[in-house]
Design goal:
mainly alpha; 4 helices; single chain
Amino acid sequence: MLRFLWQATRGYRLHPWRSPYLLWRIETYSGLHADSIGARDFWRFVWRNRSDLRRFLRWSARMRR
């Protein structure tokens, strides 16, 4: 799980809400426009979807093995 997060935030680890990859993932999952996602929107999305995100991270870890 941590490996995916580390790779997905490359170059944006201190401010993951600016990562083009994560913005694209949020946009395709939730329908929010990537251009309008700020830090507050990012953390709100993470908090509201934390169980789905945990499940995705577990799935990505299984796929890596």
